[in-house]
TrEMBL record:
Entry-linked InterPro entries: Cro/C1-type_HTH, DUF5753, Lambda_DNA-bd_dom_sf
Record SMART domains: HTH_XRE
Parts of the chain that traverse the membrane: none
Name of the protein in question: XRE family transcriptional regulator
Length: 279
């Protein structure tokens, strides 16, 4: 899979941050020179927002970049400004950056205590979550949000598929969302997805007792190709939060590994799920 706009934007931002630091210029100085806020400059360097050609030109002038470097950065800027497929789904502003990152990731580690992970949800289950969950959209947008979730899942079936490592509590599997028919379809769907070589699915049984994930909610860690650093993501009642601090992301990876050590094996997990499906 080629680099998407989010990955290109992150790499462009990393280059710009490196150039600023090499020039020994402060964020405040550079932002003032370009005529933007310090937060805007930080967002550019973090790959969280796009910039215009004239703004990149001003940065290159300040950093005294060579003609070749300017051409390379401008190409990256144009590519990073392209709209991703998710831009047409009217998703909440706080969620779009995560979707862009997930679209470029090669590995997703996802731990959930309360609900089944989004990449494993059926259309009916996802619809119920969106209708009654913590981030309820306007009724006319529910179907768009559900469609976007189904679109995200297509990467599990690509020729170079997304690798998913999902850990979920037994309580989430037993929580009735949408009634018996919806849950039966959802559990059958999990069993089917668990057969994919790129999907790892494990359950923390109710008998496992205390484990590392009890102190907080669910979270996700995304990994990428080449040198792009891992990204963490957590979601709460007020929206989602992307975690970039390397120490915090490392902590999330360690928690995920500790939680996995308390889970059933994939075979045992699937066997448990089968027992929950009505005969």
């Amino acid at each position: 899979m080629g680099l998407g706009p989010t990955a290109r934007r992150r790499r462009l931002g990393a280059h710009l941050a490196e150039m600023r630091e090499s020039s020994e210029l402060s964020v405040a100085h550079v932002a003032g020179h370009v005529g933007v806020s310090e937060q805007t400059l930080r967002n550019w360097e973090r790959g969280l927002s796009t910039m215009r050609k004239m703004e990149l030109h001003a940065l290159c002038e300040l950093y005294e970049a060579s003609a070749d470097v300017r051409e390379t950065l401008e190409t990256a800027r144009r590519e990073s400004s392209k709209r991703g497929w998710w831009s047409t789904y009217k998703l909440p502003t706080w969620f779009k950056p995560y979707i862009g990152l997930e679209n470029d990731a090669t590995l997703v580690r996802n731990f959930e205590q309360e609900i089944i992970p989004g990449l494993l949800q059926t259309e009916a289950y996802a619809r119920e979550i969106h209708l009654y969950g913590g981030h309820m959209p306007q009724p006319d947008r529910v179907e768009q949000w559900v469609s976007a979730r189904m679109q995200r899942q297509r990467r599990l079936y690509e020729s170079s598929p997304l690798e998913l490592r999902a850990v979920v509590s037994e309580a989430a599997l037993r929580r009735s969302i949408g009634g018996e028919e919806v849950m039966a379809e959802q559990l059958q769907h999990i069993v089917k997805l668990a057969e994919l070589p790129n999907v790892m699915f494990q359950v923390i049984s109710a008998a496992s007792g205390v484990h590392a994930g009890l102190s907080g909610g669910g979270f996700t860690v995304l990994s990428f190709e080449e040198t792009d650093p891992d990204i963490g993501y957590i979601e709460g009642p007020l929206g989602g939060h992307i975690i970039e601090d390397s120490n915090e992301v490392t902590t999330l990876r360690h928690i995920f590994d500790e939680v996995r050590s308390a889970t059933l094996s994939q075979r045992e997990s699937v066997k448990l799920v089968r027992t929950m499906i009505p005969a």
